[in-house]
């Protein structure tokens, strides 16, 4: 199968390397020094302590994605609309889009460009970070939980799940993908913004009584807004989330990595989105509003 990786950062590069290793034709779209390094030396992915060296097709031209059966959409949320329009010009109706992005707002944008019948969404669980241009380090547990946004895509969802599993990517199909995405989104808003503002890893947050209290407060605000949108979470969910996150203590969140690497932050797609939904449903989210203001300050300062 021909598979495109739109955005070869830590997430796209890691999953793309496994698909390439299993024999699929993979086109990696990247830019800047990252692209230059991969074109010269290939992509080096450390899966725990195992080195996967990918000699593949690395490009900054989305026209190279033409004829792809599936595109893993991995760009930052701030670039979603522009990147989607570029792909739409290059690829025909036979191409499916699977978003591996943070947040829960990208699906609406992608559906407006491609139509919901071509869009699939994944809750992406992976601890991966770029260690330099063309080098990715992954550690520990990883999994894709995904599903279709349209009933017509159910058979394709199962087919892609089988494809990923055979490529050493644990994958399962969810009949309620937006609920699954909100679970991941609530984890993201709990840890990503706070880690960026403080420079803390997940473990640093969990080990600090003050930061842990803030994280739980943001988490509970996210759960309350989700409930107003018709999604259901058990009463113990915030406490359970904190406990489950112990296994990711060494993880530097993607937002912290973006800040350290001078990249755009996904502030509006994470905290901004929650604040907008809270305002629509007349829910008070003071923790989220505070951390959002601090993130906007960091953006202006950068």
UniProtKB/TrEMBL annotation:
Keyword hit for S-adenosyl-L-methionine: no
Assigned keywords, A-Z: NADP, Oxidoreductase, Pantothenate biosynthesis
Catalytic activity, EC: 1.1.1.169
Cross-referenced SUPFAM superfamilies: 6-phosphogluconate dehydrogenase C-terminal domain-like (SSF48179), NAD(P)-binding Rossmann-fold domains (SSF51735)
GO biological process, one term: pantothenate biosynthetic process
GO molecular function, one term: 2-dehydropantoate 2-reductase activity
Reaction(s) catalysed (UniProt annotation): (R)-pantoate + NADP(+) = 2-dehydropantoate + NADPH + H(+)
Domain Ketopantoate reductase N-terminal: 3-149
GO cellular component, one term: cytoplasm
InterPro entries tied to this protein: 6-PGluconate_DH-like_C_sf, 6PGD_dom2, ApbA, KPA_reductase, KPR-Related, KPR_N, NAD(P)-bd_dom_sf
Residue ranges of every copy of the Ketopantoate reductase C-terminal domain listed in the record: 177-299
Record function comment: Catalyzes the NADPH-dependent reduction of ketopantoate into pantoic acid.
Protein family: Belongs to the ketopantoate reductase family.
Protein name listed in UniProt: 2-dehydropantoate 2-reductase
Originating species: Cytobacillus firmus (Bacillus firmus)
